[in-house]
Amino acid sequence: MLLPLYALLVIADCVAAFNPSGSYAPANVSCPEDASFVRPASGISESETEWLKKRHAITDVYLAEFLDRADLEDFDAQAFLELLNRSINVGLAFSGGGYRAMLNGAGQISALDNRTAGADSHGLGGLLQASTYLAGLSGGNWLTGTLALNNWTSVEEIISGDTIWDLEHSIINSGGINIFSTAPRWDDISDAIQDKQDAGFNTSLTDIWGRALSYQFFGEEDDGGVSLTFSGIAQFEPFPNAEMPFPFSVAVGRAPHTRIINLNSTVFEFNPFELGSWDPSLYSFTELRYMGSDVSNGEPTSDICVQGYDNGGFVLGTSSSLFNQFLLQLNTTSLTGIVYDLIHSFLTNLDEDSDDVAIYHPNPFLDTSYAALQTIVESEYLFLVDGGEDYQNIPFAPLLQPERDVDVIFAFDNSADTDDNFPNGTSLSATYDRQFGSQGNGTSFPYVPSMDTIIAYNLTEKPLFLGCNASNLTDLGTIPPLVVYIPNIAYTTWSNTSTFKMSYDNDERDAIIQNGFEAATRYNLTIDENWHKCVACAIIHREQERNNITQSDECAECFQEYCWNGEQYTGDEKVLARSLNYTSSSNHEVSSISAAGADGSTSTASTSSQSTSSSHNAAVSFGPSYSAGFIAVAVAPMIGLMF
Ligand SMILES: *[C@@H]1O[C@H](CO)[C@@H](O)[C@H](O)[C@H]1NC(C)=O
Ligand SMILES: *[C@@H]1O[C@H](CO)[C@@H](O)[C@H](O)[C@H]1NC(C)=O
Ligand SMILES: *[C@@H]1O[C@H](CO)[C@@H](O)[C@H](O)[C@H]1NC(C)=O
Ligand SMILES: *[C@@H]1O[C@H](CO)[C@@H](O)[C@H](O)[C@H]1NC(C)=O
Ligand SMILES: *[C@@H]1O[C@H](CO)[C@@H](O)[C@H](O)[C@H]1NC(C)=O
Ligand SMILES: *[C@@H]1O[C@H](CO)[C@@H](O)[C@H](O)[C@H]1NC(C)=O
Ligand SMILES: *[C@@H]1O[C@H](CO)[C@@H](O)[C@H](O)[C@H]1NC(C)=O
Ligand SMILES: *[C@@H]1O[C@H](CO)[C@@H](O)[C@H](O)[C@H]1NC(C)=O
Ligand SMILES: *[C@@H]1O[C@H](CO)[C@@H](O)[C@H](O)[C@H]1NC(C)=O
Ligand SMILES: *[C@@H]1O[C@H](CO)[C@@H](O)[C@H](O)[C@H]1NC(C)=O
Ligand SMILES: *[C@@H]1O[C@H](CO)[C@@H](O)[C@H](O)[C@H]1NC(C)=O
Ligand SMILES: *[C@@H]1O[C@H](CO)[C@@H](O)[C@H](O)[C@H]1NC(C)=O
Prior knowledge:
Its EC number is 3.1.1.5. Residues 1-17 form the signal peptide. This is Lysophospholipase. This protein has 23 helices and 16 strands. Helices cover 36% and strands 11% of the residues. It has helices at residues 5-14, 46-70, 77-83, 98-110, 119-122, 139-149, 155-160, 184-198, 205-218, 222-225, 312-319, 337-349, 397-400, 426-434, 451-456, 506-520, 522-525, 531-546, 553-562, 590-599, 604-612, 614-619, 630-642, and strands at 27-30, 38-40, 90-94, 133-137, 246-253, 267-270, 274-277, 284-287, 295-296, 299-300, 304-307, 358-360, 382-386, 408-413, 464-466, 482-487. Strands 2, 3, 4, 5, 6, 7, 8, 12, 13, 14, 15 and 16 form a 12-stranded mixed β-sheet that branches. It has a two-stranded antiparallel sheet with strand order 1-11. The chain binds 2-acetamido-2-deoxy-beta-D-glucopyranose (12 copies). One 2-acetamido-2-deoxy-beta-D-glucopyranose (NAG) binds at residues 280, 283, 372, 441-442.
């Protein structure tokens, strides 16, 4: 069907959150006059700048309330904030790690959300409303993307309803076809992919993966958000009203025909306005809404441009493309259409180098002039992969850009680094190291304890503050934000499920979400009743330093308790990752917590059985265990075990 262009434009104006085609196929629209979609990454976009003014008017109010509630000694929140000639920027980052990361992250974010019952009285309620930025990666991005693309819904609203996050049925079942129990779903997915191909666009496994995920995140309406776009976030009321933080989805660039990913790779951010990278290897941003248009140096090559390419599920699938390869386990005999064709061609070509790739074609950065390296800008294709594949499993990059001027980052780490799927801070080291390489480009990250130190000194048993003392950071490019690292800790349920556990019944799901709340709040402020005060101390700290305001004794005590003191473990003894679990942990009331855990569906027994296969889990955990040959060596046997 060919609609006249003006008709498409009218549709585009009415429902701009959605693809004007109303389907998965990108749509032709007239190009804006004098269009030039690419700009250098020399600063934040005008759109972001304008938006921030509105957001800051709101975060200032919520931050004052949050600080008031913390009731710090010798501290008048209102007077303090008025004294500053800027707004404090709080950034939140949610790590990857499949549904484990999504669910733990959900509990953690709900602890900061003043819409959650109990968050104000025994949590960090209001901090989400006081935050400027929100970054998600892979599984963490399933969380942040679900919230942002569902009109800024809340975790509590999601789990009290029954339209999304029904994880009971795995997207892929062992040996079987099925998806969430209805085979026709695959036909819909197949049709969507076919629509995109018919419109003349390349597709990859990531398209299928993104479509499949979308039914869990966007529900049945609009056929699983088939026409919902990531740039469409900007059209839901809470965004233009600046009632939500500015969301990022993080992915990594992969050079054509390579599989190796290291700290030289290009880190990309999707935000509601743009896609691009601050790294010198690209140093450009393009207008997200017009991706899919044929361009050269950011300028359209004809009058016809494209919209609707940036499908929401496709972006979430891109950030989590490592999971694509599960599709190769589908029993193709029971599949039909384009899904069958695509999966079959991957299976028969054994094209391992690209089965985790999201293809973006045409490349919006073709022939642009701001990049220090030619690799990306001379390719017809832009290849993006899972945001965790460069070992930086916590999406710090967008929050570390000096242009964004972030004061404090709350980093929620739900990675599976240790044998039993807890984090060990590996991704902190990766981000720390990156600042000194050719892609660092003026970003800074505080000094970090080594992985051995983290394990040997039990630093993941509670939150950890990094970069507490700016005067010790002057050797770095710039003074980085203070980092509040909050690891996954098991309090009332086994929150260390495998990255590749693909189905959760509602009890399991809700138990992990509850545990996430507890991990973010020091067990609902029972382990440390001053935790929310300490968080307040962390938030105001950089501005106190800038203004030569001496920290109160109360805050100094908090810093004594939570800041890393710089000591590294130097013992010769090999540090073995210990199983952290709430029955063996001694810093809180074990019996009552165990009792609480007993209500949940997960038992110690089930966790032990999970530990049995843990050596496999470790080999494929998100983070530095990636390597070339990863699929063949580690994942293939893994998939056999999991499904
Ligand atoms: C969109 O425009 C391109 C030319 O730029 C054309 O090849 C294609 O058929 C058009 N698609 C639709 C659906 O009109
Ligand atoms: C969240 O905080 C705002 C500002 O104080 C308040 O208006 C709103 O009622 C709070 N929401 C809930 C659910 O408590
Ligand atoms: C901690 O607080 C959350 C949110 O109010 C609640 O759901 C959970 O049951 C509490 N945990 C315990 C152990 O009381
Ligand atoms: C989105 O949420 C806002 C409240 O934040 C509400 O006023 C609006 O009607 C919602 N829009 C849609 C499309 O649900
Ligand atoms: C694949 O599906 C077909 C038809 O549904 C079934 O007969 C066959 O046993 C399945 N194969 C495997 C390996 O599960
Ligand atoms: C990263 O890039 C720099 C400069 O281009 C180069 O010297 C270095 O060898 C690269 N490192 C890796 C691990 O590829
Ligand atoms: C930390 O995690 C990484 C994998 O993410 C692993 O290679 C390393 O051995 C772990 N170290 C310790 C001490 O647990
Ligand atoms: C960052 O990279 C760009 C592009 O290579 C360069 O122009 C700029 O000077 C760099 N900034 C810093 C602070 O190194
Ligand atoms: C770490 O925790 C273990 C188990 O609780 C304990 O035996 C050990 O002494 C702790 N190490 C340090 C340095 O606190
Ligand atoms: C803070 O103190 C330092 C050194 O004592 C001084 O250079 C700086 O100007 C002071 N800053 C403010 C904002 O007073
Ligand atoms: C202080 O700086 C030194 C480098 O000058 C670094 O090795 C150390 O880890 C830093 N301490 C902290 C607590 O960050
Ligand atoms: C948890 O700790 C208890 C007591 O130390 C131990 O018996 C159990 O094996 C541990 N569980 C795991 C999964 O490590």
